[in-house]
Amino acid sequence: MRRTKFAAVLAAGVLALAGCGDSGSSDDNSNGGGGDGAGSDIKVGLAYDVGGRGDQSFNDSAAAGLDQAKDEFDVQSQESEAEDGEAESAREERLRTFADAGYDPIIAVGFAYGPAVQKVSAEYTDVQFAIIDDSTNTADNVTNLVFAEEQGSFLVGAAAALKTETDHIGFIGGVETPLIQKFQAGYVAGAEAVNPDIQIDVTYLTQPPDFSGFADPARGKTAAQGMYDAGADIVYHAAGGSGGGVFEAASESGNRAIGVDSDQYNTADPSVRDAIMTSMLKNVNVAVYEYLSDIVNGEEVGGTVTYDLAADGVGYSTSGGFIDDIVEQLDEYKQQIVDGDIEVPTTP
Prior knowledge:
Layout: E1 2-4, E2 43-48, H1 58-73, E3 76-81, H2 88-100, E4 106-109, H3 114-123, E5 129-132, E6 142-147, H4 149-163, E7 168-175, H5 178-194, E8 199-206, H6 217-229, E9 234-238, H7 243-253, E10 256-261, H8 264-267, E11 276-282, H9 284-296, E12 303-307, E13 314-316, H10 327-339
Family: Belongs to the BMP lipoprotein family.
Keywords: Cell membrane, Lipoprotein, Membrane, Signal
Pfam families: Bmp (PF02608)
């Protein structure tokens, strides 16, 4: 099954899971009057990737989708997050803990949960699982929620090439995996569509199985500062929580950065806000919310659901007004991608 969903703008809050490695818990149904009780017997388990809620990026976007579902459907929820450097068995046990406690569905945030979801979903065939950023699981009780990150990255790459004053830009990936290479491939393709001769520096903070590159702002700052010192004036990061360091380097050096996943102009520390030119939007919130909406309403789930430019599943932000003068050009590129006139690569 391959489906496409439409996007919306959602808000985030703060939860945690007791007994699964987090501090605190959230299992009440207070929603400010948003729900009607239709989903009050549904218990959602959300397993975050490294960085968890509060990363101002990927995990926070997933949290926003859960928050809206709690508000609208009165579902119960518990949350847990992966620890940097943890063994595969820890991810498996996190999912089993949810299943044993009666949580159904269970949502795993990030491709790193792929093997764990495959193994645990086979043990709990009566529980529904969803995983973000992995499309390899074909079990009937698993829904794969995936995105065309390369398409959104193409647009911010074009934006960087249109706004650079040095014809020199950069890309920082958190961990060099096929998923993050999609961001790189799209960004480079978009920049080169504008200027085939543009100089693009590329670096990754860590290599698998070391996933700390998604949660190391200091390393992100050092990498970005090196690019700025070498002449780049705009750097795009796909590095999760490490992006905070990229923004610091951009702000301190008087340059610009491009955020990822969320509109980071609105989520990053106010002291670096003016350095964030735009963000590549990856609407994980929409995927989580719509999946839970289907569960609550008894809709069929399973298979692979793809969120692309045609569905507004990815895109770019205009907060701060820094790219208002090039929106028309970016939207022309977007239409060419949607129409199939531009095929964006998924590998560098």
